[in-house]
Specification:
The protein is mainly beta. The chain has two helices and 16 strands.
Length: about 325
Amino acid sequence: MRQLNKMKKIAAALLISLVLPGTLLVAQKDENANDKAGSVGFKFLNLSYGARGTALGGLAAQAEGPEAMFWNPAGLTNVTGIGITAGQTQWFVETSYNNFGFAMPLAGGVIGASILSVDYGDMMRSGWSGDDEFIFDANQGSFTASDRALQVSYAKNLSDKFSIGGTAKSVSETIDGISIGGMGFDIGTQFNVGYKNIRLGAVISNFGGDVTPVEVEEEPDVSLPMTFQFGIVGQAFGDANMGLIAGLNVTKFADAAQRFAFNGEMTVAGMAKIRGSYSLGNTQAPLSLGGGVKVAGISIDAAFTSTKDFGSVTQFSLGYSL
């Protein structure tokens, strides 16, 4: 009886730790959110890495497998063998970004390593030229720019329903051979209620110290784009073999208003997935659709996102798990 009461208290505390931050997040007003635009750096960390998460508008509650390293590291705990994930996105203006991750059970939990990279392609250099400073040359050759994050993650089940995970990351941005870098961290939790496949998740991403830019005397320090996400999903009908899981993912950015993504994932014959989400609030891309298939441990996923002003974006991911 004493052990049962102890478990009830732990469960209640965990529920509060998950639900309360999400409740405060939804209730928070963002009247001055637009005033914070441009107040953080390393914005590539806020991109969506992984086709499944992109199609669903976030994976705070249902992140799982190696891909969880990019959404909520607590979801790594369902990795039971070697897991690999890779993704590629053709973004706007000849920009592409990629992700790769590897995870396996180790040290009483699951450990993973991953990399995020963004390539902005060649960009035209322009400026004043010649002896006469009033002559402006629009084409002085080209230069390149790129972003990168190297990540190490660890997750562990604290009970059969509750998991916790964390990620440490080294981030850098390079423009025309000049670089700045810093350290960031993620920490997340997931809780399975045990009824109707209802799951809760919360994650704080990209928190860490400010980074001093190259021009120390002229520029203020740069903050990482800290983000908070809260999600809840449940079985709307059917089961894991044939049914629909639906829910809500709420994202609060450090430099913008919060976003609400209503999502659903339909499973067909236990291996095919049809996904979609519709987002309200701070978003250029309200509608995302996607699908995937998993056979013999190999998964293939795709996502299609339409934007208001910049056309559409297509994203692909591959995964393998033992």
